[in-house]
Amino acid sequence: MAENILIQYMQRRLSHEEKEKRYTSSQRTGKPFLTLSRQYGCPSREIADEVQKELNKVTGPKKKWNIINKEIIQNSAHELNIDPYKLKYVFEAEKKSVIDEVIAAMSTRYYKSDRQIRKTIREVIENLASIGYSIIIGRGGVAITNDFPNSLHVRLFATQNWRLQRIMKRHDFRTEKEAFNHMRYVDKKRVDMINHFSGGEFDFNKFDIQVNCEKFSPEEIAQLIASAMKARKMI
C-alpha cells in the first residue's frame, strides 16, 4: 500500500504543472482526506485503522483509503535524495543552527538547507492530500492543509493521568515522573511543529472535531469521524 502511495505521489510530482509551482486553492482537487493530530499517549494508529475500515465500507474497493504517516518522511527523503534519518529533526520541532548549516554545506555536495527540507515536506503533504482518500497522522498535516477543501481535521486528546498510564504500559520508563516529563516534552514538540508549519501560533479552534480518547473507544471514534464525513458529504 505504501508503494502505491509513493507511485501516485511521484506521478503527480513529475507532471509539468506541479514541477513549476505549488498548489493554489483553485488547483486543489477537492478529493476527501482527513488529518489526525494527537496528544502523546492517544491511540492514533489504532484509531486510524478503525477509521480506515469504516471509510472503506462506504467508498468501496475502487477508492480505498490509505493511512499516511512514515510515507511523508520516505517521500520527502526520496525527493531530496537524502537519508530519511536526516529529516527527523524537523518532526521534533528543531531547527538547524547557522553553524550546523555551514558545516553541513562544507562537508557534502548533497547538502540540503533547512528551508529546502521544510519546503519539500510541506509540498509532499500537500500532494498526498491532493491525491485524496488519505488519513494523514500528525506531521503538521493540520497546519499545512487546513484551508484545503473537502477535508476533516481531528484532534485526539485525553487527561494527563489517562495518557500517562498508557505510556507507562507501552514504554520502559523507570519512574512515573520520568514518563510524565517525557509526555510533556513530546506534547510541546508536537505543538511547536504545528506552530512552525502554520507560520505562527496555531489556533486549535480550527480543528473540526476534538475527541476525548478516554471517553470513547477507537471503534466509537471511527464511527464519529465517519458520521461527520457523511454529514459533510465527503463520502
CATH superfamily: P-loop containing nucleotide triphosphate hydrolases
Largest sheet: 5 strands, parallel
Broad CATH class: Alpha Beta
Number of domains: 1
Uncertain runs:
14-27, 96-111
- Classify the beta-strand content into a percent band: 5-15%
Q: Helicity range of the residues?
A: 40-55%
Number of helices: 11
Structural class: alpha/beta
CATH architecture: 3-Layer(aba) Sandwich
Average of pLDDT:
81
What CATH calls the topology is: Rossmann fold
Q: What is the N-to-C order of secondary-structure elements (H for helix, E for strand)? A: HHEHEHHHHEHEHHEH
Question: How many strand segments?
Answer: 5
Distance between the termini: 21 Å
Instruction: Specify the overall morphology.
Output: globular
What is the radius of gyration? 18 Å
How would you write the strand order of the largest sheet?
A: 2-3-1-4-5
Note down, in words, how this protein is organized.
There is one protein chain. Mean pLDDT is 81; it is low at 14-27 and 96-111. Helices cover 55% and strands 10% of the residues. Helix 4 packs across helix 7 (114-131). It has helices at 2-13, 16-20, 44-59, 70-80, 88-91, 98-107, 114-131, 141-145, 160-170, 176-198, 218-231, and strands at 33-38, 66-68, 134-137, 151-157, 209-212. It has a 5-stranded parallel β-sheet, with helices on both faces. It is of the alpha/beta class and 235 residues long. The chain is globular and about 50 Å long. It has a single domain, classed as P-loop containing nucleotide triphosphate hydrolases (Rossmann fold).
